[in-house]
TrEMBL record, chain A:
Family named by the database record: Belongs to the profilin family.
Name of this protein: Profilin
Any one GO CC term of the record: cytoskeleton
Function: Binds to actin and affects the structure of the cytoskeleton. At high concentrations, profilin prevents the polymerization of actin, whereas it enhances it at low concentrations.
Automatic annotation (TrEMBL), chain B:
Xref: SUPFAM superfamilies: Actin-like ATPase domain
Superkingdom of the source species: Eukaryota
Pfam families referenced in this protein's UniProt entry, alphabetically: Actin (PF00022)
Gene3D superfamilies: 3.30.420.40, Actin, Chain A, domain 4
Protein name (Swiss-Prot/TrEMBL): Actin-related protein 7
SMART domains given in the database record: ACTIN (SM00268)
Classification via InterPro entries: Actin, ATPase_NBD
Family of the protein in this entry: Belongs to the actin family.
Length: 131, 360
């Protein structure tokens, strides 16, 4: 299965009537494996800050999580595994797999719970596959 | 049927159907007595074992908790086996992941509930007074949580939990009374009642110093008929929250701790947090506490000066004793109808770890 189909058929698929605003699967180095057309243009420093937070949980909270220039307030995640950010009614969930980062950006009416379900499920699947 | 909201504290368990402007229908002691089944009545009182399912805010004895919840849900609130409803729990700060998973597992597998949600007590206490951002100083029986919340999300790095609460104050009072009355046999539950009745906070530390030198004494009759006099010990108990050195702890007083927590948040949010400070928890409802807190707060530099918020008029009296429960009743009305909770299907598909994804 191509990486793009992970985005189109799974991450961007509908869950309970809602779907993500944008999604991407990136390598830990920031390389793009696949992304949705709606995914914002991000900077390499933003990705390295995210990877750094997985190594040193709590490092991103004081400054906030930046993605494509948008600032998200860091909220309760799972140290070393999931980073969650919030911006008004929307937000972002980043799940770390063995070799990749799965990023899902959601907006209302999608709920944070629904975003987590989608992103983390794909993440768990990839981890099982060794990716 | 309305969802049930449960806030299991170290001393009192608050439970009831989610009716927001009312206090919880059940406020019962969390402490349980274990009576061995085969004792005769004369020996029973010697063999009673006191069990505390909730210690320092966290559930520690899961079997006892299961029994307690069984009583609360089926006997107290009238749930029927086979027709269980939805339930919302209020968790303290820093609840371990494993504990949250164990709770959701207990609820779905033993109680067969149809829906589950859990939220932080700090967030709920703020909802109870109509805010989504602010800070809470929750002083309970077993723990004290100082939490900063922004837009409904607890800021973990600037929130702190202290293992200091009403329980430690009761022990302090027992110690003080023991010094004045070494021969009187005071049980902890007697001291607890004395504390609730008499403990208060001095107006400021100068007033406290004066009271230490001379303090009017009140007479109190113990259940066994003996009469003791309660003097400055009642103020010592209140002062311990502002000067933890009284308890032998190397920590700052509660107002300083709050200011410290707020200062670790980015400054653009300071105003919002300071202007929306909530005092909640059983111990914080001690007479004189709020006034003393406000007074100590006004001594802080004007840049970081907490300001305590008053609850809305339509809320019941004594809201601080069950504000987390009321907040739970408020969000239960939003979360369950909008299907943001963990359903049985979700649990069956993903297992207990679903609680971290859907509830926060």
């Amino acid at each position: 299965m191509s990486w793009q189909s992970y985005i189109d058929d799974h991450l961007m698929a509908e869950i309970e009537g809602n779907h993500l605003a944008a999604a991407a699967i990136l390598g830990h180095d920031g390389s793009v494996w696949a992304q949705s057309s709606t995914f914002p243009q991000f900077k390499p420093e933003e990705i390295s800050a995210i990877v750094n937070d997985f190594e040193n949980p709590g490092s991103l909270a004081p400054t906030g999580l930046y993605l494509g220039g948008t600032k998200y307030m860091v909220i309760q995640g799972e140290p070393g595994v999931v980073i969650r950010g919030k911006k008004g009614p929307g937000g972002v969930t980043v799940k770390k797999t063995t070799m990749a980062l799965i990023i899902g950006i959601y907006d209302e009416p999608m709920t944070p719970g629904q975003c987590n379900m989608v992103v983390e499920k794909i993440g768990d699947y990839l981890i099982d596959q060794g990716l | 049927m309305e969802a049930v909201v449960v806030d299991a504290g170290s001393k009192l368990l608050k439970a009831g159907f989610a009716v927001p402007d009312h206090p919880p229908s059940m406020i019962i002691p969390t402490q349980m007595k274990c009576l061995p089944a085969d004792e005769t009545s004369t020996e029973a009182s010697l063999h009673e074992i006191i069990i505390d399912p909730v210690v320092r805010g966290f559930i520690s004895d899961w079997d006892a908790m299961e029994d307690l919840l069984d009583h609360v849900l089926y006997n107290g609130l009238g749930w029927e086996i086979g027709n269980e409803g939805q339930i919302l729990f209020a968790d303290p700060l820093s609840t371990p992941k494993a504990a949250r998973e164990q709770l959701v597992q207990l609820m779905f597998e033993r109680f067969n509930i149809s829906g589950f949600y859990a939220s932080d007590q700090a967030v709920l206490s703020l909802y109870a007074i109509g805010r989504i951002s602010g800070c809470t100083v929750d002083i309970g029986h077993g723990k004290m949580d100082i939490a900063t919340v922004i837009e409904g999300a607890v800021q973990q790095i600037s929130s702190r939990r202290f293992e200091l609460g009403g329980l430690d104050l009761t022990n302090l009072l027992a110690q003080e009374l023991g010094k004045s009355y070494p021969l009187v046999n005071l049980s902890i539950s007697d001291v607890e009642k004395i504390k609730e009745q008499y403990a208060c906070c001095a107006e400021d530390d100068a007033a406290y110093e004066k009271l230490q030198l001379s303090c009017p004494e009140e007479q109190h009759t113990l259940p066994d008929g003996q009469v003791i006099k309660i003097g400055r010990a009642r103020y010592t108990v209140g002062e311990a929250l502002f000067q933890p050195s009284i308890l032998g702890l190397q920590a700052h007083g509660v107002v300083e701790q709050l200011v410290h927590c707020i200062s670790t948040v980015s400054s653009e949010n300071h105003r919002q947090l300071l202007e929306n400070t909530v005092l909640c928890g059983g111990t914080a409802s001690m007479s004189g506490f709020e006034d003393r807190f406000q007074k100590e707060a006004s001594l802080c530099s004007s840049a970081i000066r907490p300001c305590v918020v008053k609850p809305p008029e339509y809320m019941p009296e004594n809201l601080s004793k069950f504000s987390a429960w009321v907040g739970g009743a408020i969000i239960a009305k939003v979360v369950f109808p909008q299907n943001q909770h963990v359903t049985k299907a979700d649990y069956d598909e993903t297992g207990p770890s679903i609680v971290h994804r859907k509830c926060y």
